[in-house]
Design a protein that fits this description.
By secondary structure, this protein is of the alpha+beta class. It contains four helices and 14 strands.
Length: 307
Amino acid sequence: MDSKNSAPGYPGPQPQYGHPQYAPGPGQYPGQYPPGPGFAVAPGQPPYTAMHYQGAYGAPPVQGQPNGPPGAIWMPAPPPPANCPPGLEYLSQIDQILIHQQIELLEIITGFETCNKYEIKNALGQRVYFAAEETDCCTRNCCGPSRPFTIKIMDNMGQEVIELMRPLRCSSCCCPCCLQELEVHAPPGTPIGYIKQIWNPCLPKFTIQNEAQEDVLKIVGPCVVCSCCADINFEVMSTDEKNTVGRISKQWTGFVKEAFTDADNFGIQFPLDLDVKMKAVMLGACFLIDFMFFEHGQDHQQRAGVW
């Protein structure tokens, strides 16, 4: 389910493990390729030259994991940084995530909503995680996109590393006392952050909070959420909404796929040095945005805004 709008590759050869990670310099947006003049090179690292990629960070790609489909290429596990929840070490080495929702043939043929499944990849196309929704048939087909859900996110060994939980909430901004939210656990049972919708009559707005429910970042979407021949961007901003630090993008996948399925592609960009817990919470925010605005209801229509 690769999209032609997939994010570009990593900028230049990566430093070996043990070297400090150098984020792009001023004016260098995460993932820009090739690197511009603001790109900082690690000590002892040769200048950037174009080269064919063989494995992530000097390691060979991992294939044929027990819990993955045959031939799937998984991102090799890097050494975990200090104070990193188990399984989140993958996020410490990347500044982009691609999310591809799998097409469910049964859902297309019968019209009955099935559990969503997603592949989560890095910018090189290597699978980082696999996500699966856990809901019952009655909840999916009665509540539609507004349904409460639990999404399990697993690593390449099938170990559950992140759990996303969305309670049943009001789906209209007319009721500001019961807005959308999502809780992120890593590992399961340990909260690391929250995504909460902010009431606004015109724009989709969310706040990203840490485990103490303190605001860390804001997400601001467009006034009209309409996927017509173009990507839809939700900007990740500082708490004062003055600086953009990342982006969640719903990628245009073509007329046929957009019209007949609700299988969506998303891209997430964030600073390389962002706390891995907040990267995981941004991943959860992407799933919440998908369900709120891009999942088709019983009328096969998606929401065009906060109303």
